[in-house]
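This section describes the prediction task in plain terms. A model, or a person checking by hand, is given the sequence of a single protein chain and must write out its three-dimensional structure as a string of tokens. No templates, partner chains or ligands are provided. The sample shown here is typical of the held-out split.
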Amino acid sequence: MGAVFWMSQMLMRGKGQTQETKSKRRVKRRTSSFIEEMLKGWVYVKRSSLMQWMSVAAILFSILYFSIALPFSKSATLQYPNENELASFLGLFNGVTTAAAFLTSIFFANRLYARFGIMNIILALPLIYLLGFSGLILFNTFFVIVIFRFVQMLWLSGMADAAYQTMFSAVPPEKRDQVNAFLNGIPEQAGVFLAGGILIIGEQSFTSAQLYVVGLITAIATALIIWRATPAYRKALVSSLQEGRPTIFDKRGTTYDSTFLQVALENIKHPDPIVRHVSAEMLSEMNQPDVLISTLQDENINVRIASLKGLSNHAPAVGEVSALLADPEPALRAQAVQTLTTFSLDQNELQNIIEPLLNDESTQVQLETAFGLLKIENHLEAIELIQNTCLNGGLEERIHALRIISKLNYPEFYELVITQIDDPNPLIRSATARVLTTYQEKALPSLLELLADYDSAVRESAAIALSQIGNVATSHVINVLDNSLYTNGALLALSRLPVYEHHQEIKAFASKKMQSALYYDHQAQNINPLNAHLSLLRDSLHSRSQVDGIHALLALSLLHDYESIQVAIENLKSKSATQRANALETLEAVRDSKTIKPLLHIWEITAKSNINKDHINPQVDYAQIIWAKLMQDDDDWIRACAIFVYESFNAGGEIMDTRTALTVMDRILLLRQVPLFADLSPIDLQQIAKLSSEHHAEAGEVVFEEGEIGEEMYVIVHGEVKVMIRQSDGTEKEIAKRKIGDVLGEMSIISGEPRSASVIAAEETHFLCLDKKTFESLMRERPEVGFAVMRVLCQRLTEATK
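The expected answer:
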């Protein structure tokens, strides 16, 4: 074992030194290579006794596999010299072996894992090799080698492979791929190399019996290694519990092995509440109600809740669970109600037990009780409680009520649910979309309406709901696809719905959007950004062009190359020229590349215009036609921008007075100069401009004070302010100045903490203000604003450390 690890360490050290040298030359972060993943796996293996033993076992298992595979092939060739007979035998043998392994894995694997544990299942494999090679040493016949090979493949494919992979669940999830990369890349390949060397030398120098003796010795060594690895596996499971990793096995319906059951039972009384909590969750998964009943009095609420969940459908625990209905913790009472409703009790008995909790002081408990009662009968008081909560409760309570309505499928609640789609809170509208799925086709008009919601999370919830309704929703979504208000949501919904029967409509939509994208791109090329007004118009045209282009690509992705086009679209939005170039190359390789190709140049970074200044002056005769089109455009925003530019020319291009009230368009021009909003499109800025308010401060006036709760953020439109902090002696010290375009107060909104400094106007100053709700909505809807906030934070940190 020491020699094997010494060789692995030498190889890994060499790779590590090479990589270290390279990393000194590279600063840019990149995706890890396979070698780097192996290096990371090796670091973990060195610290894990389980993985050290299994690394050695991987070498020996490779030797054992080929020690029987090649002799079997050779014996079959000698037994069946005719090629057709040999092919028939091998086909029959492989078919029978595969079928037997499949049946074993389906009907016996889980039971054997639970009875003996996965390490004993793995240990059985070298014992099979030991018995097989012993039999071949005594009786070297074709019959014995066939039986040996059959049992080996049956156990390997039907039992040991799955057990081996399950063993890796004791490794932290973030390390599993790396450890697998190391084991596959070093020990297993070393085993293949050694097996080849042994067989080549053995063919020339050893008899068959001597080769079988080598296999026998290897099998004994492998069995000893697995036997030593078993306590290490147990130790790894205990570590998993102590680290708070309850799901150390993937939930594929497999039974937890006996070793883990024993570890969980031993740790359910552990002094650490986290370990007890994880043990309770695991015992719940393993259906151990008797143990869980004893943990209902645990001092930790999370342990008790996990135990209650594990007692679902275990009616004998009705007394112990009912006693918890009087517990002082609302969450525990609510879970007790949930658990009781899973018991097979007489309906009147269950109603008598839980009905008093309709008057519980906790709304959560009331709602769970109402849910339980409505599963029994049409309980009028429970219906009224849910309705009142849905209309008048707090945010979390209303969402909880809607969630319960979705589980009940009561027609009485439909009209109530419909009223929630106009709620001002997007979280309520999202929850409403999820509930509407319950009402199937009846809810289609309301779900289609939610596809036009301004909040992306609401649109996604509506799209998911429509996909759950199924085929019948597709034609309805297709009907609203061409309506610009619904396009984004409709494309999202169609990506989850069957669309092949509507491929002609989708192709027509994509073609129309491509033509629109090229039209707006052409209009943008006719404009030179000689001032802020023209720059706004040109950028708006480019933005509309790219939006239409994205819509065209999304529509085409519904028909083919979905993954490739989706990845390309994400990269088209990147600031990196390299990523955009890769996206364009990807699009050129898809099935409809000829159709898409004319569209691609709208994302290319080129000089879009070299036109004479007169070409953009709307007062010049030959430009009138262009401006007439733009000022009558179907797009409200493009039309507004064109009129704004036209009016600015008529006004002689005068600079606006930022000390007076600003129009929405003036606000947009100012917001475009603010770094925080630099990555937003003009149409997004329009929404911010409409929602912002104005604030004016005279010289010396306090804008906000240190210690206040932040409810607004400010963008300086005109003037200058001083940032002051209060010192220990009560005096104030100026730490910074902020000028036009700077943002103030955003950190208090984000953190929820009081203002960390005071801001005082150094001169007459004019601001645009965004309230907390608007800014939070902006952060949720536009991640690029979040990145901009981080850039501002870094800048402020740099200033503070100078």
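For orientation: The chain has a mean pLDDT of 82.
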